[in-house]
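Predict the 3D structure for this chain.
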Amino acid sequence: MYCRGLFFDGGAWDYENHTLTEAPAKVLYTDVPIIWMIPMQQSDFSTFNHYSCPMYKTSERRGILSTTGHSTNHVMNCRIPSAVDKSHWVLRGLAMLTALSD
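Done. Predicted structure below.
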């Protein structure tokens, strides 16, 4: 499945190096490139330096906690290539959003 129309909140995509990068100054949201999602077993995933980026329905990033422990606003996590340690993006609060407002 190809997924497009997503936004990064707290970071950006470096098209030259194919990795996460800092967002330009004073830019809150940047476009996520088209993502090709392939269903497969987690044990078959290739190993690479990545950030497990949460995807939310809205920019509020909150909702009612479901029985799984996730917010009802949480969609899934996506493995995004990163040249720096994942803690860097956690501190920046990097997330993907499906919509910028309700």
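The first helix runs from residue 86 to 92.
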